Amino acid sequence: MPGTPPRTFKRVLLKLSGEALMGSDSFGIHMPTLMGIAESIKRIVAGGGIELAVVIGGGNIFRGLKGSAAGMNRSTADYMGMLATVINGMAVQDALENVGVQTRLMTAIEIKAVAEAYIRRRAERHLSKGRVIIFGAGTGNPYFTTDTTAALRAAELGADVVMKGTKVDGIYDKDPMKFDDAVRYDSISYDQVLHMGLKVMDLTAITMCRENNLPILVFDMTDTENIVRAVRGEAIGTLVHA
Fold first, then answer.
1. Are 77 and 87 in contact (CB under 8 A)?
2. Model-level pTM?
3. Dist CA 221 CA 127 (whole Å)
4. Is residue 130 left, alpha or beta, with left meaning phi > 0 and alpha meaning psi from -120 to 50?
5. Are strands 216-220 and 238-241 parallel, antiparallel or unpaired?
6. 205: part of which helix (H) or strand (E)?
7. CA distances from 206 to 151, 158, 178 (A)
8. Euclidean distance between CA atoms 134 and 104, whole angstroms
9. Which CATH class name applies to 11-241?
10. Average pLDDT, whole number, for the chain?
């Protein structure tokens, strides 16, 4: 598509769903998958020149919307989901430090015993020193998803791109798991995503990225090597842009 921005990035916000940590399991954290993600991130930051922050979801442990649908108070369920993201953040931090990557876990809900409270200037300093930041506890507010957290933190920190790892290799005009004739886009605009109702990220996140001219790269996370390919600017997945 004409006008597609070049895929060269210096500061990257990587959005990982909780399900990305499950691997072949149906719940919790699959350790080989977790270590594969850690090794890929190590390769990304080892050479210097790329600053990386990670927003982690909690769907492998608890999903707030599911709890709410089952009759829980929505705010309570969302806060439980935020705490699940902190558990995942601790796991990712431990895996990264086991392979020699310096990290900081920062949370929007203050949990002094396990993480730093999120302060934008402090996060900027960590990135400038080559540390990988892991963001847990979402935005700290109910009714907001970790997709929105990714867009918000990326905008605050001046990231070049939001990268979202999924179970498919990009954005399709319809569900490729159900339709053999589904067509994949190499590139698509924010307005097309919103108009077509494509399930890329939630509407708040897409709108925030559009307003801040933040490209979104959607790619296949089932192969953790794709994290390296995506950050290095290889033409994989689908790029959403202005």
1. no
2. 0.92
3. 23
4. left
5. antiparallel
6. helix 203-211
7. 8, 16, 24
8. 6
9. alpha beta
10. 93
